[in-house]
Design a protein that fits this description.
The chain is 33% helix and 25% strand. Strands 1-2-3-5-4 form a five-stranded mixed barrel. With 206 residues, the chain is of the alpha+beta class. It is built from five helices and six strands, in the order βββαβββαααα.
Length: 206
Amino acid sequence: MIKDLKADNQEHYLIGIVKSIKEGLTKNADPFINMVVADKTGSIEVKIWNTSEDILLNKNIHSGSFIYSKGLVGEFNNRIQFTIENNKEPNIVNLNDFPDLKSKFKLEDYVPMAPISYDEIKSYFLKVINEVEDEEIKSFLIEIMNDYGHDLISYPASVGVHHEFINGLGYHLYRMLKSAVSLREVYKDSVNYDYILKRLNNLQVD
């Protein structure tokens, strides 16, 4: 993990998500690439010096790429820095192409995610929907889950505002539903519970 890297000028392996990437020129007009790579423990600046035109033009690596590479860990301007071998492009990891790697690399170790799993959120949604008494509303909620359920759960809630992580929207709605369920007994004589559940889901889709 990134937090474990030390500026010892020794070779280490780096695995993480590219948060940003840009090209630059040294004082001698030599091209280089500067990246910020992160996992759940922190982030680190990554340099590729003397970058060839092929790497610059290919643009295989972009923000969001999952990469791993060997390089030297040092320090520059009092900040830890990871330097990849001159003109050496990092490897891009696509776990779908390497099923055996899925047991070694867990996405939640490298990107912010909701504190509960996708499956737990989905299971709770289905449980709440199953308790809806109004058949028309229940049918509507099932249709929402069938058509938009994956996106509804897995997307971030609101970039730069709240729950800005994988499964953030699902977690936000999960907490809203929990609140609605907890208030059900308090207002059972004056509030249509089924209608509230419909509106909560409808607001997210709109």
